[in-house]
Amino acid sequence: MHAEAASEQSSLCFSLLSFRRAGGIKVQLCGFLQYANIVGVAIGYTIAASISMLAIKRANCFHVEGHVNPCHISSTPYMIIFGVAEIFFSQIPDFDQISWLSILAAIMSFTYSTIGLGLGIVQVVANKGVKGSLTGISIGVVTPMDKVWRSLQAFGDIAFAYSYSLILIEIQDTIRAPPPSEAKVMRRATVVSVATTTLFYMLCGCMGYAAFGDNAPGNLLTGFGFYEPFWLLDIANAAIVVHLVGAYQVYCQPLFAFVEKWAQQRWPKSRFITGEIQVPLVSCGFKLNLFRLTWRSAFVVATTVVSMLLPFFNDVVGFLGAIGFWPLTVYFPVEMYIVQKKIPKWSSQWVCLQLLSLACLIITIAAAAGSIAGIMSDLKVYKPFSTTD
């Protein structure tokens, strides 16, 4: 999808006619939330990628020095490395030109999920039984209040796993015209992708807890529940990094396109914004735009700096998942469906949909509260740019 098409369609928000009739306030609110959440996703991905790169270094250190060596390493250099890579890839102009990167990212996701699941199963077999319980971590290992906060945060972590809903419209717009129709293709793709994602994530989460019980790390592949085989952990974490490089671009392209289209409309005669420079060193005839280079690089730098200041993966991810889940995945789609199907107000179907939306709102508020509590707890002991134990 070209930048113009991405910015015009930009999000699920602009497809709701009733919101336009209401003066566009809800359209603007939806757009703001979508783009703000994309910024948050970029920060979360930067943190996650740096943790995986750091895990590769520490796994090798543990293998050589032994598990008693704390292997203190700072995550800051790895965030900078990830940021530099994203500056390079962010110069790809259009959404449809990163399809190869998206495919590679999907393959990497399948790779590290399979490795994590396999290691969990092997550990359960080695333990000759399942650890943990149906009620989760035991009181005593954590306080009752900590258990409540962690349970609420988990809802946010789960919601973050389905943040793809932010860019469903952009993905749909890259599909060719019928036959078959875009709606049918997206319906089938969504069912398959959600089912596959849910299956793998639930298996990985359950097997990780079954393998380690109360001592289960927040991240199965970077929390060092597993130390060996270190080379397999290296492969899994490398796959995570490659996956996140691609995912970062897939999520940020709509925001990039929106800002660039707005700038072109605001200053149509500016050569800095609209002019392109042919780059002769690239065989495919790549054209460099100075505004694109400046704006996208600044965006990556800003998200990288924020990531350095808040490198709390689980808590940050839980918060981002919470604040984006209800408005963008539930509320606006439900309102669109009601308008599209012309569902009468106070009918049984309308009431059920509103109850669903209300239930998800309660979950969102609870998950956000749990994640904020986790972040506040982390900030009490955190020192910026310090090494990681």
TrEMBL record:
Signal peptide positions (record): none
Residues of the Amino acid transporter transmembrane domain: 13-376
Primary localisation category: membrane
Localisation per UniProt entry: Membrane
One record GO biological process: amino acid transport
Keywords carried by this UniProt record: Amino-acid transport, Membrane, Transmembrane, Transmembrane helix, Transport
TM spans (from-to): 35-56, 76-92, 98-122, 189-210, 230-251, 293-313, 319-339, 351-376
One Pfam family it belongs to: Aa_trans
Source organism, top-level taxon: Eukaryota
One cellular component term from this protein's GO annotations in UniProt: membrane
Stated name of the protein: Amino acid transporter transmembrane domain-containing protein
Organism whose genome encodes this protein: Aegilops tauschii subsp. strangulata
